[in-house]
Amino acid sequence: MDKTQLAASPELTQGLGLTLMIGCGLVFLVMAYVIKSKLVRNTHDFIISNRRIGLGFGVGAIVSVWTWAMAVMMSSAMTFQWGLSGLFWFVVPNGFAIMAVIPLAKALRRRMPAGYTISQFIHNRFEQSRVASGVVTVTMIFGILLEILINLKGTAVVMSTVFTIDWRLATLLTVFVVLAYSYFGGLWTSVMTGTVNTWMITVPSAIVVVAVFGLIDGGATTVFNKVAEDPAKLSVMNWDAAAGFGITLAFGLLAATVADQTFWQKVWAIRPNQVGRAFLWSGVLFYPIPICFGALGLVGIAYGLTPADVGGDIVAVGPYIVSHIGLPVILIVAYVLAILAACYSTIDGASSALSSIVAVDIVKRYAPKTSESKLFYITKLSMLAGGIVAAIIVLSGADFTSLVLTTYALKTSVLMPLVLSILWPRTNTLGFVGGIVASIAIGMTLRGLYGELVGTISIVAISAAVVIIAGLASSRSFDMGELGVKRAINLEG
């Protein structure tokens, strides 16, 4: 096996790539228009789907927003960089992170059944504290923007690698396509198109990976024999991989679900008796996806590829293998559609989450007399604004892996304060806000000086310690039963 054997398929034209991008968008646009006419009457329907999402659509929606560019591309990249340790540290925490939401989701759905956002919970939990809710609102918005731009970046990498489309054009086209259909139906559109996207991700990924190994003489045996030339690549518990990204990613993944409005929006939108089951099955069904895509990283190692061969960014190793190994064009198209489905659905879901934050935590909190018609349009326009801001950041040329790890480091600062605020009644405003601020100020500084591992552990430890110390220093204890009787924001019109 040698990388000189790899060559791009001449049939992968820019026109084909653009057709796939636009074609997906048009199909989802038609779906969105039908959804809007049947199910969306007001802002409440737009951002919470009237709390009517069942188990099937719930699982599809959760899997689709969690299977973002990171899952389908970074799994290959980390396997390519670290071998089986990279695949292990990427896959294992991923499904668990979804299931970790279950006890928190059940607790909040029971105590605050009419909720919309996690920032709204914090506002009520800390006695209408605008400081506490403001910190969470800003953090959530920033995290959502990073999610959108990461998936814009992922789409750009795939389309530029497979079809040589200029990555800037791919970025702008993705923003236009996704936001065009998301604008109409909000969460209902995200849920239904996301369920379709889940099928587009899972089935093609399995077929394509099997086909890739089938084109190699000796198949998986040959690949593993080549990878075994570096014994560290076949070690599942390589400490360098754990320290280099694994532990940071594990905490980041927990933070990415627990401290992300994209998932809390689903918690309050899914029918109460299906919340736990939806997140459980989503975590279980997610696992095969990164395993399939991650296997392409082993193929990259076996062929002796280097980062320079794939354009300098190792997240391109999966698309490079698929488009250069000699697969039939139909299978390459299936792979690209799987990537587009993953990126589109996450951008769509994040945009929908952003709209709920704007409606509930900004407009209705600071301008409660805003009319329903005006609120509806502001909510929709916030999705467009978020996409534009994210696109501008992507066009600056930021590195994909750095974006992911930075996003998770910042989200990790919210993880322990948020968990403790749900589970520990003695958590107070000073501890909550102080924990987040101190962990960002100190932990991110340590991260810059000593690397990902030290920075992540510091962020978790500092945020938790500040919350606990402040709680123990105060004799006050919050009655969680009060959440259900506090004045709720009503968007049903």
UniProtKB/TrEMBL annotation:
<keyword id="KW-1133">Transmembrane helix</keyword>
<dbReference type="GO" id="GO:0006814">
    <property type="term" value="P:sodium ion transport"/>
</dbReference>
<keyword id="KW-0813">Transport</keyword>
<dbReference type="InterPro" id="IPR001734">
    <property type="entry name" value="Na/solute_symporter"/>
</dbReference>
<dbReference type="GO" id="GO:0015293">
    <property type="term" value="F:symporter activity"/>
</dbReference>
<feature type="transmembrane region" description="Helical">
    <location>
        <begin position="403"/>
        <end position="423"/>
    </location>
</feature>
<protein>
    <submittedName>
        <fullName>Na+/proline symporter</fullName>
    </submittedName>
</protein>
<dbReference type="Pfam" id="PF00474">
    <property type="entry name" value="SSF"/>
</dbReference>
<feature type="transmembrane region" description="Helical">
    <location>
        <begin position="129"/>
        <end position="150"/>
    </location>
</feature>
<keyword id="KW-0769">Symport</keyword>
<feature type="transmembrane region" description="Helical">
    <location>
        <begin position="279"/>
        <end position="305"/>
    </location>
</feature>
<dbReference type="InterPro" id="IPR038377">
    <property type="entry name" value="Na/Glc_symporter_sf"/>
</dbReference>
<keyword id="KW-1003">Cell membrane</keyword>
<feature type="transmembrane region" description="Helical">
    <location>
        <begin position="196"/>
        <end position="216"/>
    </location>
</feature>
<feature type="transmembrane region" description="Helical">
    <location>
        <begin position="375"/>
        <end position="397"/>
    </location>
</feature>
<feature type="transmembrane region" description="Helical">
    <location>
        <begin position="12"/>
        <end position="35"/>
    </location>
</feature>
<keyword id="KW-0406">Ion transport</keyword>
<dbReference type="GO" id="GO:0005886">
    <property type="term" value="C:plasma membrane"/>
</dbReference>
<feature type="transmembrane region" description="Helical">
    <location>
        <begin position="236"/>
        <end position="258"/>
    </location>
</feature>
<keyword id="KW-0739">Sodium transport</keyword>
<feature type="transmembrane region" description="Helical">
    <location>
        <begin position="55"/>
        <end position="75"/>
    </location>
</feature>
<feature type="transmembrane region" description="Helical">
    <location>
        <begin position="87"/>
        <end position="108"/>
    </location>
</feature>
<feature type="transmembrane region" description="Helical">
    <location>
        <begin position="430"/>
        <end position="450"/>
    </location>
</feature>
<keyword id="KW-0915">Sodium</keyword>
<keyword id="KW-0472">Membrane</keyword>
<feature type="transmembrane region" description="Helical">
    <location>
        <begin position="456"/>
        <end position="473"/>
    </location>
</feature>
<feature type="transmembrane region" description="Helical">
    <location>
        <begin position="165"/>
        <end position="184"/>
    </location>
</feature>
<dbReference type="InterPro" id="IPR050277">
    <property type="entry name" value="Sodium:Solute_Symporter"/>
</dbReference>
<keyword id="KW-0812">Transmembrane</keyword>
<feature type="transmembrane region" description="Helical">
    <location>
        <begin position="325"/>
        <end position="347"/>
    </location>
</feature>
<comment type="similarity">
    <text>Belongs to the sodium:solute symporter (SSF) (TC 2.A.21) family.</text>
</comment>
